[in-house]
Amino acid sequence: MSYSNICPKELLQHMISVDRENTLLRKLRDYTYYIEDDDVENMDVLYHLYSNYKEMNKIIKTDIPNEESFMKYANNCADKYKELEKKCVKPSKHFCKALYAFKKKYDDIDLKNPKLEDWEKKKLPSLSKSENAE
After folding, report:
1. Angle between helices 37-61 and 67-85 (to 10 degrees)
2. What is the pLDDT of residue 73?
3. Model-level pTM?
4. Cα dist. 62→12, 70, 131 in Å?
5. How far apart are CA 62 and CA 116, in angstroms?
6. Rounded distance, CA 38 to CA 26, Å?
7. Cβ neighbours, 10 Å, residue 26
8. 4-7: long-range contacts, CB 8 A cutoff, minimum separation 24
9. Is-contact 103 88, C-beta < 8 A?
């Protein structure tokens, strides 16, 4: 994935010139820095996990939920999560906390809804590799 190299100070200056009434922007001058490529990539993947999660919830809330579409998003989440979980050897990292927060939301999805009684699968694909070994 290729990311643009945007100077944080130039970006802030542009934001200030566009929104002159926002006095808070001026206070941010000492807090701008480049975001590491790994962090940008992690944020991008978290965004896509939450995007899949949002689509899963949309599907469940429709009048006739489509199991195949739902499971496509759920399997995508599980695959991406397992890939990212390897990066969390230090659970105190901000990224890992965000990843575990996603897992909590994902695990809270309820497939016992009466509208879903015809679905073949009654459980979400597991996010953790250790849970799949059981």
Report:
1. 160
2. 97
3. 0.75
4. 42, 11, 30
5. 11
6. 28
7. 10
8. none
9. no
Give the model confidence (pLDDT) of 25-81 as tens digits: 989 988 888 888 888 888 899 999 999 999 999 999 999 999 999 999 999 999 999
3-state SS string for 6-33: CCHHHHHHHHHHHCCCCHHHHCCHHHCC
CA distances from 123 to 12, 54, 61, 114, 133 (A): 46, 18, 17, 14, 15
Burial 51-85 (b: 16+ CB within 10 A, else e): ebbebbeebbeeeebeeeebbebbebbbebbeebb
pLDDT, tens only, 91-100? 668 889 999 9
Burial class (CB in 10 A: 0-12, 13-18, 19+), 119: middle
Alpha-carbon distance 9 to 44, whole Å?
Answer: 22
Q: Quick one: how many helices (H) and strands (E) in the chain?
A: 6, 0
Which amino acid belongs to residue 106? Answer: Y
